[in-house]
Specification:
The chain is mainly alpha-helical and 200 residues long. Helix content is 74%, strand content 4%. The protein has a 3-stranded antiparallel beta sheet.
Length: 200
Amino acid sequence: MVLNHVWGLMFQPKQEWQSIHDERCTIKTCYCSHVLFLSAIPAIAGYFGATTVGWQVGAGPVVRLTAQSGLMIAVLTYLTMLVGVFSIGRAIHWMGQTYGSRQTVAQAIALAAYTATPLYLIGVMFLYPLLWLILIAGLPALAYTVYLLYTGVPIMMEVPEERGFLFSSAVLAVGLVMLVALLAVTVILWSEGVGPAFTM
């Protein structure tokens, strides 16, 4: 069933992780029932927020993206999230051998996909792109995502709690490195002239 684990992850994560573990979904099932839908939330909300509502810096004019620029960024955001889930899942699987896990790539990708659920959902805030509002809502979502990771790793990857803590910390470090690399690529592309187009 599409999105059938969202409620459980938000309100009873340990039981829901066990349910996800026992389901043994394939990569295709995981993407088709969860990732493809939830990844669209921040991309679509960001498109409408940036092209319709816009944002304001201080007392300056309201700035918006052109429809074409907004669409390009939304599509790239969506594709980046799809690739990011797969990449982090592969990294989890690769690191799992160090921590004694013998789980499949599909289980590792499911862990990455379901861990990101709060970040997908909070993406709806991009409909009204106020930086302070996004920070106020985004920081608790980020904290809960980290909690889901630390809760889910021992269950999904079948490792003891103490190893799960170290494993989760390693996954978190990999995620942060990937984020920094993505930001660096963005800066390079913008400096080469591949950046957003604005309208007042």
